[in-house]
Design a protein that fits this description.
Blueprint lengths: L4 H8 L4 E2 L1 E7 L2 E7 L2 E5 L4 E7 L2 H9 L1 E6 L5 H7 L14 E3 L5 E3 L4 E13 L2 E13 L7 E3 L2 E7 L4 H4 L5 E5 L8
Antiparallel strand pairs: 1-11, 2-3, 2-6, 4-5, 5-10, 6-9, 7-8, 9-10, 11-12, 12-13
């Protein structure tokens, strides 16, 4: 029986994730890609993991041994789409505010939060490289709705009105999908 890749994508698409922008810089030239395969691996030492498809981002991270993971807000969907595309404009960073992190990896100004990492290990798995980075610096930049990826589409959580339960630190709301045709949530 042949492996059903379409079904595989649909099954894994049922797992909602946050959306990040993975950034690195080679010879002071920034590079970025959208990624949702990101997670914390260890608290002590602080290690995170990101999975990167074969390509320039992979090459740049291997050459610089540094990367940053920038957690995107729902209002940064255009950045997610731009850096998730293989067809990017030549001036892809023209309107993007970046600053160097302690590792030299670019930090995206205005994201929700970021971790600046030094590469400590990597492994090849299929058509991806899994990178493990030790967190050298981190910060929460602002409070806003996170950008999510679910069922092959971008989404955000629309918070429900405050309830007693919400006051007890539980957040209730509904998932709102981005409408590609209308260009809005």
């Amino acid at each position: 029986m042949a492996f059903d890749t379409a079904l595989y994508r649909k099954v894994l698409g049922q797992f909602a994730t946050g959306v990040t922008l993975i950034t690195t810089a080679l010879d002071e030239t920034p590079w970025a890609m959208t990624a949702n395969a990101f997670t914390s691996i260890s608290l002590n030492p602080p290690i995170v993991m990101v999975s990167v498809m074969e390509g320039e981002t992979r090459t740049h991270i291997l050459r610089t041994s540094a990367f940053a993971v920038n957690v995107l807000a729902a209002d940064q969907i255009e950045l997610a789409k731009r850096f998730g595309s293989r067809n990017r404009p030549p001036d892809q960073f023209a309107d993007v505010r970046l600053r160097p992190g302690v590792t030299g990896a670019p930090i995206l100004e205005g994201c929700l939060a970021w971790v600046d990492c030094r590469l400590v290990d990597h492994t090849e798995q299929g058509d991806h490289t899994v990178f493990f980075g030790q967190v050298e610096d981190m910060r929460i930049e602002r409070q806003a709705d996170p950008l999510l990826y679910y069922n092959s589409g971008y989404a955000r959580i629309e918070p429900a009105r405050k309830t007693r339960r919400a006051r007890d630190h539980a957040v209730e709301g509904k998932l709102v999908f981005f409408d590609w045709e209308l260009g809005e949530y």
